[in-house]
Amino acid sequence: MSRAPLNLPRLAWRYLWARPMLTALNLMLLSLGLAAIGFVVLVSEQMEQGLKRDLGGIDLVVGAKGSPMQILLAGVFHLDQSTGNIPLATVSQLRAQPLVAQAVPISLGDSFQGFRIVGTTADYLALYQLTLAQGQAWKAPMQAVLGAEVAGRSGLKPGDRFHGTHGLASGGDEHEQAYEVTGVLAPTGALSIGSC
Asked: How far is CA 6 from CA 3, 23, 79, in A?
């Protein structure tokens, strides 16, 4: 008696159709597993690109006495409370060093509707390659360029005024003097900042 050769694809096909609920469950689990792996890969790539973009051109972060990690998180990624500001004289000393190509000062501590107000110079816009979608850059104290997200959520546009508050939490003491909005940054998909 001779036996027919074993046909694996046909056998697998018959097995799948003999147990349709189990087959459907296995296909669903396989799909979920592949989707989860794809999601992790995409998120990992986005985070890596974001870190490269935010750290691009930054070799050293100088801040007030405190945790180095907190200084980095607050000064570069805007994710933590600032340890405080250093004196402007220290920034001048850093700029005078022959090994320092560029020093971009930022001053943190106040906010508007939960968004940080970043006191800085026009070098900050150049460092992150930010462009204006509306208006112009600030030229004097108490003038502000809003990030695209800040402008979208608040409804502010060039020519409008707003009052900053002390600290990041809502309900802080409001400043008496108002900021004048001079411009709005083009969306970048990166940091949400308000600069003044």
From this structure: 9, 22, 62
